[in-house]
Amino acid sequence: MNVAWQQGNLRKFCQNKGIHMSAWSPLGANGASWGSLAVMESPILKDIAITTGKSVPQ
Questions:
Q1: Cα-based angle 30, 34, 40 (whole degrees, multiple of 5)
Q2: What distance in Å separates the CA atoms of residue 33 and residue 4, rounded to the nearest whole number?
Q3: Beta bridge partners of 2
Q4: Nearest Cα to Cα of residue 2 among 30, 38, 32
Q5: Cβ(58)–Cβ(49) under 8 Å?
Q6: What residues does 5 pair with on adjacent strands?
Q7: Phi first, then psi: what are they for 56, rounded to 5°?
Q8: Neighbour tally for 46: CB within 10 Å
């Protein structure tokens, strides 16, 4: 799962088949040629962090 790419159809398929989905990688990919830390600027994650009293990376 990825906050920015939630794959709704895949989630529904897995739920219907009893398949558990989970994240396999940390958020962001600082230093990787294919990624960045842009996800840390997500308004959704910022709202969750504020609500739970945590930082975005937590």
A1: 40
A2: 19
A3: 5
A4: 38
A5: yes
A6: 2
A7: -55, -45
A8: 13
32 contacts 10 by C-beta, under 8 angstroms:
no
Residue 14 phi/psi, 5° resolution? -60, -40
pLDDT in tens, 3-53: 667 788 999 999 999 999 887 766 666 666 666 777 888 899 899 999 999
Q: Which residues contact 37 (CB under 8 A, 6 or more apart)?
A: 28, 29, 30
- Which residue type sits at 22? S
pTM summary value: 0.48
pLDDT band at 58 (very low <50, low <70, confident <90, very high): confident
Gap between the Cα atoms of 48 and 34, Å rounded: 26
The answer to whether 21 and 11 have CB atoms below 8 angstroms apart is yes
